[in-house]
């Protein structure tokens, strides 16, 4: 099994997931980890698309460091099936100690 461990797909900044799937199929990639791209914290698109393709995608999320309850948000996202958390303080314009 071939797994791409760092992929982006999105509504605005990146190609839609259908384009990613086309390229994965063409390259013989069986599964992928969808990584929420820096600067945004809306993980819904990745969860929605991964749910339509059970077993093919796992989702790594980002949480807004200014969220009033980041641990609660992380628990919520874990309940949705998040496979990991991306810490990208530079993308959030925050120090890692603030995340």
Structure in a nutshell:
With 99 residues, the protein is α/β, with parallel strands linked by helices. 34% of the residues lie in helices and 17% in strands. The chain has one domain (3-98): 3-Layer(aba) Sandwich (Rossmann fold).
Instruction: Figure out the total of helices.
Output: 4
- CATH class category name: Alpha Beta
As a whole number of angstroms, the C-alpha radius of gyration is 14 Å
The end-to-end span amounts to 35 Å
Main sheet strand line-up: 1-2-3-4
Query: What percent of residues are in strands?
Result: 15-25%
Q: How many discrete domains?
A: 1
CATH topology: Rossmann fold
**Average pLDDT level:** 86
Number of DSSP E strands: 4
Architecture (CATH level 2) name? 3-Layer(aba) Sandwich
What gross morphology would you assign?
elongated
Helix content: 25-40%
H/E topology pattern: EHEHEHEH
Low-confidence regions:
none
Structural class per helix/strand content?
Answer: alpha/beta
For the sheet with most strands, the description reads: 4 strands, parallel
Description:
This protein has a single domain (3-98), classed as 3-Layer(aba) Sandwich (Rossmann fold). It has a four-stranded parallel beta sheet. The protein is built from four helices and four strands. By secondary structure, it is of the alpha/beta class.
